[in-house]
Amino acid sequence: MRNTKLDALVQELGLSQRQLAARFRAVAAENGATELLRYDQSRIARWIGGAIPEGRAPHILAETLTRGLGRVITLADIGLEQEDRAAPPAPGWSVDALTTLATLGSTDMDIERRQVLAQTAYSVAGLVLPSEAEWQQAAERARARKPLTQRAVTLDDVASVREMTQFLSRRDQERGGRGVGRTALVAYLRTDVAELLSGRFPTDHVRRAMTSAAAELAYLAGWTSFDAGEHPIALRWLTLATQLAEEAGDAPLAGHVLRAMAHQAVDLKQPAEAVRLAEGSLSGRRYREACWREKALLGVVHARALAAAGHKAQAATALLQAEKDLGRATDEGEEPERVWFFAEASLAHETGATLRDLGDLKGAEREFKRSVRTRRAQFKRTHSVTLGYLGDVQVRQGQLDAACTTWQQALDAMTGVQSGRARETVVQMRRALSPFRTRGGSPAAELDAQARAVLAAR
């Protein structure tokens, strides 16, 4: 069946199929899609006739049309939404950031397509970080990108995006990534932020500021997906956020996002990939130009990755450095808003998880208790997760009564929290209680019944 949507856009562009094929090859070359450089006008004709492009071709085609028509063109716009549902694009660095934002945003906001994407396999094994030279080339291409709209972007627009990010970030810390705030976040990215990135920048400073603000919001979309347990979606948003941060020349922000990707890989039992991503977050300017609080955050996640990979001595060294870096944070002035949450309680939480993975259960218990003791009230989501972890290390040491008391506090703290990570702690709680819950009327049996009710309600 003829692809009438694509045909209409090609006619609107006013180019012959030969000319469009030449532009397609040029965009493919810029994006490193060498497998597409042989495509000629016959391939364009076949696509208009109804053939389905394979691999990266649909996204390169959408980017080619985006540049030519001066507005963002998605896969749905070119009649390939079914292709998008059947085979969501793999995460990568090569496709134009604006095209990725439009396509990923549309996928995320469509329930059916989102479900398909969420069910794909999570893997970062093939996601090789570009070299510094390649990142520089990407930044230069972004600087030369032609505006797609006539909107003049100002620093007030940048401030508005950052204010929205701050509001949604604090909501996430309180209630978790599965709440209604995330839907608003993605919609705002897909519409308002995409339009701003497509506009005219009076100076390169404004362009970089807006791109950095967009990167931080894309990071939040990825982090909330991670917290909700939608890991393939999270990986794509985090990949896009890293690309935008590098295009903005914001090395510390790129490191911050790579740190989140490393954290995700730790949780999903891919320690080698976690170490690789954590080392990337600490590379060059990403660590060197970060504030001390952010350095501590990067370092403690590096320690967790090393512990998960079995590198005990290196993990201990990384923990000590993270503690030192956070200790120096009180001596500095302005910090980026994204690290507002990271203080003693967060460091203790990550340190406890590191020691647990190294087999030091007493040390882990001590750090989790420190985290619980020092955490501020608004961090309900992480507080409940910490209590879940604490109960786990207590029961593994034979402290069943203490664990039940801790887990009861964890369940109480989860009221109003919508988080996949919090839910997973309840699942792990029930597994740990399984040898004891057959004793009717016991505290363990009663707690298990409450945990089962919590899971049923989520």
TrEMBL record:
<dbReference type="InterPro" id="IPR011990">
    <property type="entry name" value="TPR-like_helical_dom_sf"/>
</dbReference>
<protein>
    <recommendedName>
        <fullName>Tat pathway signal protein</fullName>
    </recommendedName>
</protein>
